[in-house]
Amino acid sequence: MSNSARTEVVLLLTASVNIKGMVLTALNDAEIREQHYLEAIAHYHQQTDLPILVVENTGHDFSPKLPQEIAQSKRVEFITYAGNDFPRERGKGYGELELMNYGMLHSKLITDDTVIIKVTGRYRVLNIKDFISSARNPSRQPCQASYFKGQRKAFSGIFCATRPFIRDYFMKNHDLINDSKGVYFEHVLASTFLEYIADGFDYSLLPSYPRIAGISGTDNLPHKTNNYIFWLRRSIIYKIVRVNYNFLDKVIKIFFQG
To answer: How far apart are alpha carbons 132 and 208 in whole angstroms?
Structure first.
């Protein structure tokens, strides 16, 4: 895909309402989880002009509780299927990647040229407009993540990808994800980016530190960036590190890697 051809950005929200005792997941109450998803969908419908794809893997129907404006919206697509029957020890990250792939394959909104902003579906990213602006910028790489090369994990709450990245790279590593063995979605996302880079592609760092309002499913506690002061400190540090990292990365490529 040429940069000049990049015109379409889609917000992909992953959802799993009835998780049925998933390993390492403290928030199991289906009604609470559903409410979090509904709040997030409403947030993005109000705060963005993007097409929104909601993919759910436990056969749950959101429609009875959707506000009329969302239920009738032409820019919101819901896909739900029965895909939560994999071994529990694999963990929610295994199901999340499967969700992404299923949605990518069955959505009417996504093509190979689409930039996909993937967000964990219960999270409300309060500075989402920063990421939309960056995804639409033809001078930025279509794949974007909070990942510094050499680190073991990449942040998975929000990142940008394309269908070829998910299909040709990430899904090849799907079976590596196993929460019970300490190999999480974040580990495999990081290693997949390294494979992607090794094949001559590149990615950009996310433009801002995500400010997330929501409850972590892992420990059932509020996300730390619910606290504005915590987020502000992290945001300042992230911007400083990001600028210097980008500079050093260019220097390494020019003088040491040829």
So the answer is: 11
Any domain includes 254 = no
Torsion angle defined by CA atoms of residues 42, 157, 164 and 104, in that order, rounded to the nearest 10 degrees: -40
> Residue 169 in 3-state DSSP?
helix
What's the predicted TM-score (pTM) here? 0.92
Domain presence at residue 102: yes
Q: Are 116 and 163 in contact (CB under 8 A)?
A: yes
Residue 77 lies in a domain: yes
Which residues are 118's β-sheet partners?
12, 159
> Helices 128-136 & 30-47, crossing angle to 10 degrees?
60
Measure the CA–CA gap between 212 and 230, rounded to whole angstroms.
11
User: pLDDT of 105-136, one tens digit each?
Assistant: 999 999 999 999 999 999 999 999 999 999 99
- CA atoms of 1 and 48, how far apart (whole Å): 25
Q: What count of residues does the chain have?
A: 258
